[in-house]
Amino acid sequence: MELTIFDKPGVENTDAALDLALKTAKELNIKKVIIASTKGSTAVKAGEKFKGSGTELIAVAHQYGRKEVGKTEFMSENLEKAKRLGVKVHFATDLLTATVGAFREKFGGGFFGIIADTLRMFGQGMKVAIEISIMACDAGLVSSDEEVVAVAGTGGGADTVIVIKPSYTYKIFETCIREIIAKPR
Questions:
Q1: pLDDT classification of 64: cutoffs 50, 70, 90
Q2: Alpha-helix residue ranges (DSSP H) falling in 28-161
Q3: Are 92 and 60 in contact, with CB atoms under 8 Å apart?
Q4: Torsion angle, CA of 1/133/82/88, rounded to 10 degrees?
Q5: What are the C-alpha distances in Å from 30 to residues 22, 50, 111, 154, 155?
Q6: Is residue 91's pLDDT more than 80?
Q7: How many CA atoms lie within 13 A of 58 on its CB side?
Q8: Domains of the chain
Q9: Does 127 have pLDDT greater than 70?
Q10: pLDDT, position 116
Q11: Residue 22 scores a pLDDT above 80
């Protein structure tokens, strides 16, 4: 696979990133693609692009209560559309973000922050793509012995695509990034 470098991060790369994810999944015979989606628009767009491809789409969204007690940021109309398009939507605690905030608030920092900040050196989307892969693995939606395509972005939409063999949180350092397909400059 050839590496695609987008000129800048952001939502304007979403269509191209999703096209690359679909192409990669087909070429490598990967059966599952994990999509980061906060409000659900990227999940819906992915569902539309992947329709009829035979690829299982898993959208990973922020946990309930992240911004408002008992609520999710994932818009209800997008949840309905995504599900109609066959996208599985999983709400999960941000492994490398929520835990960092809790430790920072209580103790002034923590080791997950070191992991998160190191991954951000490759771009916000890279951190999120790895994070959602581990979250999906923890939920049993993907296996730690299969390669998946992960798609994430920087502040909305998608701009990062990787091939990854995820692990469970308790074995986080067994996670293996196989290929970087796209990322912003």
A1: low
A2: 41-50, 76-84, 98-107, 111-120, 124-138
A3: yes
A4: 120
A5: 9, 13, 32, 24, 27
A6: yes
A7: 23
A8: 4-62+74-184 (3.40.1380.20)
A9: yes
A10: 79
A11: yes
Q: Give the integer Cα–Cα distance in Å for 106 and 72.
A: 24
Residue entry with tokens 């492994």 = 95
Closest CA to 130 of 93, 165, 79, 104: 165
- The residue assigned the tokens 């070191």 is 114
Structural tokens at position 61: 């969204």
Q: What is the rounded average pLDDT of the residues 91-95?
A: 81
User: In the numeric block, which tokens belong to residue 145?
Assistant: 């012995």
Q: Distance (Å, rounded) from C-alpha 137 to C-alpha 70?
A: 24
Query: The whole model's pTM is what?
Result: 0.89
> Mean pLDDT across the chain, nearest whole number?
89
Give phi and psi for 129, each to the nearest 5: -60, -40
Q: How confident is the model at residue 102 (pLDDT cuts 50, 70, 90)?
A: low
| Residues 55, 88 contacting (CB under 8 angstroms) | no
Phi, psi of 181 (to 5 degrees): -90, -40
Quickly tell me which residue has 């990227």 as its tokens: 42
Whether the Cβ atoms of residue 134 and residue 167 lie closer than 8 Å to each other: yes
d(CA 148, CA 29): 10
Tokens 């679909």 correspond to 22
d(CA 29, CA 45): 21
